[in-house]
Design a protein that fits this description.
The complex is a heterodimer.
Chain A (H helix, E strand, L loop, with lengths): L1 H20 L24 E4 L24 H18 L29 E3 L10 H14 L34 E7 L2 E6 L4 E6 L16 E7 L2 E7 L15 E10 L2 E9 L8 E9 L15 H17 L9
Antiparallel strand pairs in A: 1-3, 1-10, 2-10, 3-4, 4-5, 6-7, 7-8, 8-9, 9-10
Chain B lengths: L1 H23 L16 E5 L42 H12 L1 H4 L12 H4 L4 E5 L3 E6 L5 E5 L14 E7 L2 E7 L19 E10 L2 E9 L8 E9 L13 H9 L6
Parallel strand pairs in B: 4-5
Antiparallel strand pairs in B: 1-2, 1-9, 2-3, 3-4, 5-6, 6-7, 7-8, 8-9
The chains are: A alpha+beta, B alpha+beta.
Amino acid sequence: MIAHKLFVGVSVAAVCAASLSAQAPSPKARPYVTSKTPWGDPDLQGTYTNKDESGIPFERPSQFTGKTNADVDDEELKELIAERAKAAVQRAPGIGGADTGAGPTHWYENYGAKNSRAWLVVDPADGTIPPATAEANARNAERARQRAGHGPADSPEDRSLYDRCITRGIPGSMMPAIYGNSYEIVQSPGWVAIRYEMVHETRLIPLDARPHVKSRIQTYMGDARGHFEGNTLVVETTNFKAASTYRGASEQLKLIERFKPIGPKAVEWSVTLDDPHTWPRPWTFAMNLTKDSSQSIFEYGCHEGNYGLRDILSAERAADKTSRGGAEDVKP
Amino acid sequence: MRRGLLAVGAVFVAAGVLVAAQQAAPYRAPRGPDGKANLNGIWQALNEGDWDIEGHSAAPGRVMALGAEDAVVPGVGIVEGGPLPYLPAAAAKKKANYEKRLTADPAIKCYLPGVPRAMYLPQPFQIIQSQKHIMMAFQYAGAIRTIYMDEHTPAPADSWMGWSNGHWEGDTLVVDTTGFNDLSWFDRAGNFHSDELHVVERITPASPDHLNYEATIDDKKVFSRPWKMSMTLYRRKEKGARLLEFRCVEFVEDLIYGGLRKK
């Protein structure tokens, strides 16, 4: 019995330690060292989720002016999490569970998220995204000008790449969503593969320092190259298509991701966006990925079942008829 | 004349001896870090199975405007034996599929290719081999399979690419896949399956740059008995070979949603 109690005590301590290590690392903490693959690379393999990072704002909320994420104490974070959970539930009827036909709320993963931090931007230190350059503003104004005069769904091209089941891009494919937040990392000598459930994406990342593909080859997910720095997987991605670059970046975007193991079940994923054509300086955001073998990836046949896009387009065409006085054609 | 025949006979005998010698000493593949045969790499089939898995002659294409570029490339077929043992109703459906192949082949709409079709599409795929999970990533439509080597569980639900559990038999990776929907085809010729499809694949290294690939197809709703296809998969060796993006969704939006564009 005593032994049993002792065991429980140790387990509680272990759980506390794990939850601490999942938060922003303190400078005193000894870095977590991963196990190795049979060929000696740090072993990051497994199924991860970041559903618990749902609802975290990019930028530092004004109530924390002057603070970094590390300055936010457990009590404050707990309150924030409770507020965000409440807000998510208030928004729920608009997503699922009510009369939307989008299914019951228990289908969704974004409720009760146990955020690891108060905001995402870690550099600059003030937690704000650098203002866009004049070049970027002009570029985005031109894009808006080209779109002017289009309705919300005149054609598939008026909808987002996500609506069209083409891609969420990178880092979009790893941003927490209302469902489909599972990721799978598999390694072989010289390679890391990352599979993303939502839309269905896979990145094949060579570790052999080969050069990027020629600049005329542009892809939605970019051309990724990786290497390990200690236990951390560093991935540099270039060769983006302008249509899929993140937050209005140019196709010159260089994206640097760091997958840093911070505990047996947690990896900190940080993303640096380096694009002088869009921001005067690189900036970085970070969140945690949590290992969860119960969240195996299931096929997301997005395009194959994309009734959403068809219905959006057909609803708009029906509305066109109504506005031309052809209401009798529109069935309720 | 007689001497000529003798010479031909000698060649046949010699070829027979060669085949026997190959069978006698099976190729032993390089080991991966876990001691298993190493299947890592970028691979591609070089056959005409995607046009028609059965042996077929060259034939006109489906779209006249595309002329010779859309014509059917002839092939000896990847099905062992034959003809395919369709049940009577299924044979009629196969014929109907063929008649409407221009509109009904799911690959025309950029839908996921299913298994085994993904393996012999005319595009490369990459194997990322680890101890617990083996990933097969396909260039076509970003299709992907995870083969579970550690925990074998039944398919949670039906899907295009199915649910794959794998194990090793010597140097052969054996993959057992179930949980298919009934929507994918085996080829452009309308060969098809139901949601009862059960595929057992056997992948065996045959040289540093070749894999022997066999798939046994069992589908009691469609076929009167299991049947087998087999082919060679070739390593993509050229400098810089790699998978790129073939995201065909945007290429088919006009085909699928064109009628819903604002006029």
